[in-house]
C-alpha cells in the first residue's frame, strides 16, 4: 500500500534570477526537490553545495536533494551535513550503497536511492530494507520538461509489489514528466512522492497546481495531504 501522496516541486526550471520569489510560490508543497548535476553523470550542470546552502536558508520546506553526480560515496554526505532532509544518490553512481546509506543516516538525513529508466529494480532489491525512499526516474535524468516514459508505470508497479512483499512502507518517488495527465496513473501504479517541475513552475498559479496534483494523486490512493516527516 502507498503512503499519503506528497508533491515535491523541482526548482530546476524556476527563474533562478528571482530565487526567493520562486521559492515562495511553492510554500504549500510537501517538500522541495533540488536537482544537483555535475555535467558528468548527466549532460547538464546545476546546483552544488553553495547553491544548496542558499536554498536551505530560504525555504521552510524539507529539501530532498537528488544527486545526479558521479562518485556519490564521496560527495553525498555533505548534503546531509548541510541539512537536506533526504539525500538521494543514483544506484549507478555509488559503489558502496550500504555504507553510504548508513553514513547519511548517521548525519541525520533520510536516504534515497535513484534508478535511471533502464536500470533494473533488482539492483536495489537488497537495499530496500535500509533506505527511506526509492526514486524511479520517469525520464532520462538531466533536464526538465521531458515527456513521461510510459513503460515506467510497470516498473513503479513492480517496485510497489517488491516493497510490499518485503513488508516495507518505503516511499516510492517518481521524477520526470509528472503532470495533470500522468500523475493519477503513476499513483495508481504505486508511486507516492511526486516530483513536478514544469507542471508547477509553468503554471500561472503554482499553489493551485500543487493542490490539483495532490488531489489527483490522492483520489487514487484515497488520501489527502501528506503528514509524513519529509513528505
Ligand atoms: C530531471 C530532474 C527533474 C526535473 C523534472 O533530470 O531530475 O527533477 O526537474 O522536471 P519536469 O517535471 O519538468 O519533468
Ligand atoms: Zn530530480
Describe this structure in words.
The chain is of the alpha/beta class and 231 residues long. The chain has one domain (6-222): Aldolase class I (TIM Barrel), CATH 3.20.20. It is 33% helix and 19% strand. The protein has 9 helices and 9 strands. The chain has helices at 19-24, 49-57, 72-75, 77-82, 97-106, 152-165, 183-189, 198-201, 206-221, and strands spanning 6-9, 32-38, 45-46, 63-68, 86-90, 110-115, 133-137, 171-175, 193-196. It has a 9-stranded mixed beta sheet. Helix 6 (152-165) links the parallel strand 7 (133-137) and strand 8 (171-175). Helix 6 packs parallel to helix 7 and helix 7 (183-189) packs parallel to helix 9. The longest helix is centred in the last third of the chain and has 16 residues, at 206-221. The site of zinc ion (ZN) has 6 residues, from strand 2. One of its GO terms (biological process) is pentose-phosphate shunt.
Amino acid at each position: 500500500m502507498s503512503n499519503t501522496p506528497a508533491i515535491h516541486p523541482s526548482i530546476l526550471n524556476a527563474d533562478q534570477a528571482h530565487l526567493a520569489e520562486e521559492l515562495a510560490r511553492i510554500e504549500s508543497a510537501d517538500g522541495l526537490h533540488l536537482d544537483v548535476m555535475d555535467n558528468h553523470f548527466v549532460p547538464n550542470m546545476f546546483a552544488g553545495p553553495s547553491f544548496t546552502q542558499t536554498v536551505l536558508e530560504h525555504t521552510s520546506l524539507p529539501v530532498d536533494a537528488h544527486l545526479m553526480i558521479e562518485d556519490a560515496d564521496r560527495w553525498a554526505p555533505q548534503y546531509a551535513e548541510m541539512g537536506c532532509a533526504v539525500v538521494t544518490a543514483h544506484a549507478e553512481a555509488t559503489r558502496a550503497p550500504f555504507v553510504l546509506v548508513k553514513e547519511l543516516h548517521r548525519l541525520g538525513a533520510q536516504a534515497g536511492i535513484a534508478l535511471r529508466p533502464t536500470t533494473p529494480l533488482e539492483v536495489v532489491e537488497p537495499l530496500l530494507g535500509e533506505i527511506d525512499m526509492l526514486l524511479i526516474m520517469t525520464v532520462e535524468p538531466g533536464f526538465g520538461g521531458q515527456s513521461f516514459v510510459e513503460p515506467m508505470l510497470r516498473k513503479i508497479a513492480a517496485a510497489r509489489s517488491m516493497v510490499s512483499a518485503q513488508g516495507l512502507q518505503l516511499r516510492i518517488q517518481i521524477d520526470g514528466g509528472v503532470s495533470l495527465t500522468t500523475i493519477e496513473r503513476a499513483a495508481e501504479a504505486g508511486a507516492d512522492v511526486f516530483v513536478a517541475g514544469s507542471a508547477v513552475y509553468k503554471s500561472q498559479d503554482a499553489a493551485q497546481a500543487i493542490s490539483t496534483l495532490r488531489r489527483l494523486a490522492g483520489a487514487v490512493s484515497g488520501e489527502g495531504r501528506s503528514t509524513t516527516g519529509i513528505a
